[in-house]
């Protein structure tokens, strides 16, 4: 970035003699509008007959991903002046400008047996230029959704200047049965609810699944033995290992370190709950807190140097930050009500949390020094935030009131906009949003 | 698994733009009228095209520069980042939004409208986008 800036400055310095005597026209923009970026995405070209259905489905998925963010709005095909019948066809930018499409996505799909190839180009309509190079993805027909998500991620990233989140998965607790006898099992799905698979059966209660940083494993709390214990599950083969704890100890609320080699969690022994860290390869434990109060829900900062957690040491449940090796924590939440389940954002600038105040539950964010608290939601019971890989969206559980109440997962933008239910069949809670897939 | 690769470019001719009128926040006095204020004209125009990311958390102020041709169009559609006080992530995001606003807005009326006789006074433009103030809206 600095290199780029210096190069531009150098060009400007060299150009000074050619510039106007009075210098450039200078102004400051401190005002703007909030509106979705408009885009047109004509159906991707099917390069052979076998590709027709998937070309249509894949282009719709790209549109659905982008429009679903609330940051983009599709210009419908009925408004098109130009038709794009071929990927290689020159772009008539004037026609796309006339319908106020700021971006144009053109793609083509080919199917050869079980092999699928998708290529696309993205155009910045108002500058009349291609935005980045064309990209091609190759995979299987069965994996067409992933390729659609990858196209949408690339488009999102090029237009907004930040990473996408569409080609990612969510692990969560799938729920069925009445409230007083609820069956729970681990499940995994694409971020949009597609490709649902179950990872455990519902013979034992499971809670709080947490993805590893690269998405290959999941930590969760299981009541198989009657006591809460932490399991590490391999997502590919569903193999499980239990984190060793002494008899009588209860282990819960686990989360991986950013390198995936360590686990931080709560351990309850003799009525006291503290935070521990275990090295997964050596099994060595380190106790990080030693207060008579309840310390739980730890979450590492992205650089691994700090841990945010909840504690009732002040008399009410509040958020604290301490070093990765323990030490004196500092309190960061000071508003009315109780704060819990803090999760550090992937960018490191915010902490998401659950807040309970005046009979309502909220999902909120605050800066890591506790300032600029913003409540994003409000309901009978919202809890358990989890960040999208790019730190723009938060997924959480919402439970409805009453005996027939059920749990549903929702997502919300960190501005509080675009609140919507995640489409999953049956009850769903405790989401953990995994990383972008390779 | 899926493999991503870049492939070489096609030749894409640029067509003459049709007039599109993005939202302009208030009436703007044409340059032929006495009292025309170049800075205010451009400011009003561009802010109507500036899309704000309200969830921005960093205080990022960026400065961009570009040269206009005699028709009031951005030369080569090139907008340069001159300075930033934000990190890479915020800068990329802010610069993309600023670039898009400037290029999109130039099509309102077929280019930014200034007196051709005073070209030397307006051909080079430096704009500061203050995201910290933008996101307060």
Give unreliable regions of chain A as ranges: 5-20
Please bin the fraction of helical residues of chain B.
Answer: 25-40%
Counting copies of identical and different chains, the oligomeric state is heterodimer
Largest interface: A-B, 71 and 75 residues
What does it look like?
The complex is a heterodimer of chains A (438) and B (137). With 438 residues, chain A is mainly β. Chain A is 12% helix and 43% strand. Chain A folds into two domains: 37-160, TolB, N-terminal domain (Rossmann fold, 3-Layer(aba) Sandwich); 169-436, Neuraminidase. In chain A, helix 2 (52-68) crosses helix 4 (144-160). Residues 5-20 of chain A have low confidence and may be disordered. Chain B is of the alpha+beta class. Chain B starts with a strand and ends with a helix. The chains are: A mainly beta (438), B alpha+beta (137). At the A-B interface, helix 1, strand 1, helix 3, strand 6 and strand 7 of A face strand 1, helix 1, strand 3, helix 2 and helix 3 of B.
Outline the secondary-structure elements.
The complex is a heterodimer of chains A (438) and B (137).
Chain A: H1 2-14, E1 25-29, E2 37-40, E3 45-46, H2 52-68, E4 72-74, H3 93-98, E5 103-112, E6 115-124, E7 129-130, E8 134-140, H4 144-160, E9 168-176, E10 183-190, E11 197-198, E12 206-211, E13 217-222, E14 229-234, E15 240-242, E16 250-256, E17 262-269, E18 272-279, E19 285-287, E20 295-300, E21 306-311, E22 318-323, E23 326-331, E24 338-344, E25 350-357, E26 360-367, E27 374-375, E28 382-387, E29 393-399, E30 407-413, E31 420-421, E32 427-436
Parallel strand pairs in A: 2-4, 2-5, 3-5
Antiparallel strand pairs in A: 5-6, 6-7, 6-8, 9-10, 9-32, 10-11, 12-13, 13-14, 14-15, 16-17, 17-18, 18-19, 20-21, 21-22, 22-23, 24-25, 25-26, 26-27, 28-29, 29-30, 30-31
Chain B: E1 3-7, H1 38-47, E2 61-67, E3 80-84, H2 88-105, H3 119-122, E4 124-130, H4 131-134
